[in-house]
Amino acid sequence: MSTYRVMQVTAPDGSFEPDDRKAPEPGAGEVRIAVEACGVCHSDAMFVSAALPGVTFPEVPGHEIAGRVEALGEGARERGWRVGDRVAVGWFGGSCGHCRSCRAGDFIVCRELKVPGWAYDGGFAEKVVAPVDALARIPEELSSVDAGPLACAGVTVFNGLRRSQARPGDLVAVLGLGGLGHLGVQYAVAMGFETVAVARGAQKADFAARLGAHHYVDSTAAAPVGEALQALGGAKVVLATAGNSAAISATVDGLAPRGEVVVIGADPTPMTVSPAQLLGSAHVLRGHPSGTSRDVEDTMAFSVLHGIRPMTETMPLSRADEAFRRMLAGEARFRMVLTMD
């Protein structure tokens, strides 16, 4: 009997421990993936802590999956998939296909979105069964260690920028230089934006410059962030990657007329933005989710074209608990990625 190993938590906020299971057969419209790498995302903590409704235990998180198709369910071949195909699965782990959003083609806001680790076991495992609509083809130029984080962190910042109102030459600020922000700066520069990196501490200015940023704003400096952005002409877009409501709120006054703050960093704390800050200059404040499998493919293709890669630290699957704790502590530089033992 074929078995595989997962790293699971058996209770909310528990530690990861190994479990060996019988290899599942993919159902209709599904494939089984031999996982080669899986990124550790901060959103995984919402599943481990049961902060979202419907999380059940034992819980196997992981939605930055990269590997190879090793078994096809009924209908998968007819949809173009073959054993051996290199694939990635991100936050978008499939959609229902019948809700109003899906019928309009807006699959990422499906009312029954299937997120790995929530709708089905995620990638902290040697094998994953996933729906075929979740699969993104990985270019040969990308390693699995690089492809995994691009399926969530990468596509989120890439889509957030390309679907914003910014156009080449516009001033775009990226708030935060962590797991999302270090990619956001690279994408913003490659898209032709005059790019401002905003982070805590003057010591990060050199790192921002190495990423390609044209300007750096220290959010701990005496001048407020909004004032510093206005001194540069005002931001057409602020991509808020930092999960800090106070820091996000501080950028609103740095917008140019009709500028927007695109929020992708999650924080349950309410933001402090008044209607008066939005009305006079027609400012926009909006949230942005991740992206579909097609968006993931676009992200990977753009990354290959422009030489953009996530900065990663790898650990074997057996050290999932250590990798997860390192991510939670903010010590990862900048994405933790699990590889198979």
Any overview of this molecule?
With 341 residues, the protein is an alpha/beta fold. Helix content is 25%, strand content 25%. The chain is built from ten helices and 15 strands. The chain has helices at residues 44-48, 100-103, 144-162, 181-190, 205-211, 225-231, 245-249, 275-279, 293-306, 320-328; strands at 3-8, 17-22, 30-40, 65-72, 86-89, 127-131, 136-137, 171-175, 194-199, 215-218, 235-240, 255-263, 284-287, 312-316, 335-339. Strands 3, 4, 5, 6, 7, 14 and 15 form a seven-stranded mixed β-sheet that branches. The chain has a six-stranded parallel β-sheet with strand order 10-9-8-11-12-13, sandwiched between helices. A two-stranded antiparallel ribbon has the order 1-2. Helix 3 (144-162) crosses helix 4 and helix 3 packs across helix 9 (293-306). The mean pLDDT is 97.
Distance between the termini: 20 Å
- Helix and strand element order: EEEHEEHEEHEHEHEHEHEHEHEHE
Q: How many H/I helices?
A: 10
Rg to the nearest angstrom?
Answer: 20 Å
Uncertain stretches: none
**Which percent band covers the strand fraction?**
25-35%
**What number is the mean pLDDT?**
97
Alpha-beta content class? alpha/beta
Largest sheet: 7 strands, mixed
Q: How many strand units?
A: 15
Overall geometry comes to globular
| Relative helix content | 10-25%
